[in-house]
Fold each of these.
Amino acid sequence: MAVWLVHKTTGVTSFEALQAAKPEGKSCHGGALDPFASGLLPVLVGKGVHVFHLIHELPKTYVATLKWGEETDNLDLHGKVIATGDASNVRLPAITAGWQDQVPPEFSNKRIKGERAWKLARAGEKVELPPSRVYLHEATWLDETHLRVVVRGGFYVRSLARDLGRANGARAHLTQLHREQIGPWRCPPEGTIEKLPLEEALPWLPTRALSDAEVGALRKKQPLEPKPLQPPKWGLPPGFPPTSYVRAVHLGRTAALLRADLSVHAWL
């Protein structure tokens, strides 16, 4: 198996959800969810760990529940209220799509001089994180407090709630966050695990068929000649930043991940 699709429930950490899935051998999760959040958690098993960086490039769909009137220090319902605003007549701010600079939450996994920001913030230290370049594909208000967003990896929905609350003066934080989908993978029902073999786990990548000679050339770090790629079976949303990897197939099985220049990223 290469990728397991796990439904992480509210109240557990992503690491606890990974351990509960009980994968054998080498494994990791493909993108953490905060303990208060729920939804799809990809667990990468065996050689599947080599696709970790590919998941960062995929569109991720979240449904967020906002509470207007209060901003908390960690930007979710378990934090300390640090600012309040008038939520009696909330104006829903416009949301700009595309690449943008976003300040991550102080309570995040970002590192500051080798230490996790959330650990420093929890210890009472002042945390100042520089803006990160992130991508928001689309955002749709479902009603006054529910928002569906499609983003690229590295985007913090908690930070979006903070910025929206500051934009309309009402202040805001998240009370719920659910990850519905990552790329072609939808969140399975709670209590179930969907296990995808490697051949089915990477449908968004274009494919390059390799001959025996080309496999040998790659192992010797020799370049491949350009050749038309087979299109992906699952396409990224129109306008979404393209992927930078290619799936290399030899004798009917996935043999390697190639970079855009057709050099080897990882053998599978």
Note: The mean pLDDT is 90.
Amino acid sequence: MIQLTNVSKTYMKQSALKDITLTLPMGKIIGIVGENGSGKSTLLKLIAGLSLPTSGTVTVNGEIANRRISKVVSYLSELESYYPVFTVREAMDYQASQFTDFNMAKAEEIMRFMQLDPQMRIKGLSKGNRGRLKIMLTLAREAPYILMDEPLSGLDPMVREAIIKGMITYIDLESQTLIMTSHEIMEIESILDGFIAIRDGSLLRMADVEELHESEGLRITDWMKNNYGKSE
């Protein structure tokens, strides 16, 4: 279980998150939505232990989230984070050397699904294929928490639907939780169990997607238009 209690984060006197309290259960796919600069990526980094709160606490399975929490968290950054001189195969080998839960057989399967050439150097990959590589390396871990910051960024719209469906295939919701930020809300809504809405660093709402559909007759993008004044 992931728990945030009265969490605030400030960068250079600029408030990124303000007094957020929430609990995220296991076995769910949850989207973090909000406008640019609302604090979505900051929230994900705090859960991943890559950034520490200015105040409040973030715990993952009862442990304070810090860099050591990576043993139970597989994190996909929106930034380029792999050595460009590596081939796809070398990136897989490196990931396996860093994380004992990296499943090489699963990585091979995802690599084929993503149509990646194992001998291709990362610096020679297109932006879309670098995005596929990051997804593959993240999902091949058997960590209980998978965190993805804009995993669809740079991917061709024509292949996003197939990749989204593939992402579900490679996640075991009996033992894993997927939390992601995305601007492509309409494209990922069909796989979401719940969503967290952030506005200006504050928690606007955390809700079940099916409940939103049934009780309010709204899709997430409709709800966002009503509450943000515009969609992302």
Note: The chain has a mean pLDDT of 92.
